[in-house]
Amino acid sequence: MINIKYPSTITGHTAQASLTGPSMVDVVSNPLSSGKVYRIYNIRALCTNTGTDPTIKAYIEENSVSRAIDIDDSYVHNLNESRLLLLTKDYVYLEEGQKLRMQSGQGSSFNVFCTYDIVQ
Predict the structure, then answer these.
(1) 8 Å CB contact between 115 and 22
(2) Domain spans of the chain, in order of start
(3) DSSP classification of residue 120
């Protein structure tokens, strides 16, 4: 069990992914038995093609089961618009064996940038 209150090491990282709807894409993965917790504190999306459904959704997946996380997924993005989807105060934690997956709407494309800490 990781002690998040008094960690021994915190290392900052940035991940980037390209989404083309409606396929799901892994953005950040915490390997099984890593002995670490990933604390995601920022997700930003840049709309590169609006298509027919310029929206974006985020999920936490574990053992092939996905559950939606609370981001502003109803917002309709404009072309070349960059939008912050997750604020620092709304941390998302990935435990061992979990991953952050994202999906854009039909025909739309996004570049997604995610900043996170690996906590040991």
Answers:
(1) no
(2) 10-119
(3) -
Q: How many CA atoms lie within 13 A of 52 on its CB side?
A: 3
For residue range 78-105, what is the model confidence (pLDDT) as tens digits? 888 888 887 666 788 999 999 999 999 8
DSSP 8-state secondary structure symbol assigned to residue 76: P
Contact 85, 55 (CB under 8 A): no
Rounded CA-CA distance 100/93 in Å is: 9
CA–CA dist 73, 60 (Å, integer): 14
| Residue-wise pLDDT tens digits, 21-60 | 898 999 999 999 999 999 998 999 999 998 888 888 889 9
Give me the amino acid identity at 91: Y
Hey, what CATH class is 10-119 in? mainly beta
